[in-house]
Specification:
The protein has 269 residues and is an alpha/beta fold. A hairpin with a 3-residue loop joins β12 and β13. It is globular, with a radius of gyration of 19 Å. Its EC number is 4.1.3.38. InterPro entries: Aminodeoxychorismate_lyase_IV (IPR017824), Aminotrans_IV (IPR001544), Aminotransferase-like (IPR036038), BCAT-like_C (IPR043132), BCAT-like_N (IPR043131), Class-IV_PLP-Dep_Aminotrnsfr (IPR050571).
Length: 269
């Protein structure tokens, strides 16, 4: 099942018919590993694919060198079938690669983000899973080249905030340091990040809807994922670069970031 490369007739290449996971690995130990495996299993269930053997997956992180690494897993339905019709007896393929990694600690101090014009279509069947067909995110990320802007916030067709192009969104409506922090529901579209899920399971984060028009009124705003960690948002701008909101990083920002980074093994204090 494990391959070093994908053939040209692979359905993952042809149709995005597959799943992927991006895992932070520290000294051979994958962070939030059970959450990544759970999301992969759920994605396989949704797509009607047999999940890869966990014994095979569990063997991969230990093969990596010491230090911080990023392990990317790609799991496709394999080859076969006529057109979009999936093969009756599919033979899935698992490919993986790893690379050295260092988090962008400068962005832990605060980042500028912008609103994206590209909207996310609603498709409850695929909501939450990390499938390979991510063209909406690709188009949204292509909307700016300014390195000063770290991320772009994406809304759905109803104008509700869903996620950033490669991160989840978190916010607090009040300046109190009391938790929980909020995050948008992902029952219609978006990717349910593993760090997001871990924080929800620890009762630090709850789901609440948020319109784009209310973003500037949040007391605190963050974006984050299980590889880069949590970035406090210090400036929000619209799709044309006009400022919509500005924040100073305070104790609330730091407390939430610190608790989230504990789940990833990061030290930010």
């Amino acid at each position: 099942m494990n391959q070093t490369q994908l053939p040209l007739d692979d359905r993952g290449l042809a149709y995005g018919d597959g799943l992927f996971e991006t895992v932070l690995v520290r000294d051979g130990q994958p962070q939030l590993w059970e959450y990544h495996l759970a999301r992969l299993r759920r994605g396989c269930q949704v797509l009607g694919m047999v999940p890869p053997p966990e014994a095979e997956l569990n063997h991969l992180p230990a093969q990596l060198s010491d230090g911080l690494r990023v392990l990317k897993l790609i799991y496709t339905r394999g080859s076969g079938g006529r057109g979009y019709a999936p093969p009756v007896s599919a033979e899935p393929r698992l490919v993986w690669q790893s690379s050295d990694f260092a988090p962008d600690r400068q962005r832990w101090q605060g980042v500028s983000v912008r609103l994206c014009r590209t909207r996310l279509a609603r498709q409850p069947l695929l909501a939450g899973i990390k499938h390979m067909a991510r063209l909406e995110n690709v188009l949204a990320r292509g909307e700016w080249q300014d390195s000063r802007v770290a991320e772009g916030l994406m809304m759905d067709i109803e104008g509700l905030v869903v996620e950033a192009t490669s991160m989840n969104v978190f916010w607090s409506p009040q300046a109190s340091t009391a938790l929980p922090v909020f995050t948008p529901p992902l029952d219609q579209c978006g990717v349910a990040g593993t760090l997001r899920q871990a924080l929800m399971d620890s009762a630090m984060v709850e789901e609440h809807s948020l319109t784009a028009g209310r973003l500037a009124h949040c007391a605190a705003l963050w974006v984050g994922n299980s590889v880069q960690g949590i970035w406090p948002v210090t400036r929000l701008e619209d799709a044309d670069g006009r400022e919509l909101g500005r924040w100073q990083v305070g104790q609330l920002h730091r407390d939430f970031q610190h608790q989230a980074h504990l789940a990833l093994g990061y030290s930010d204090r």
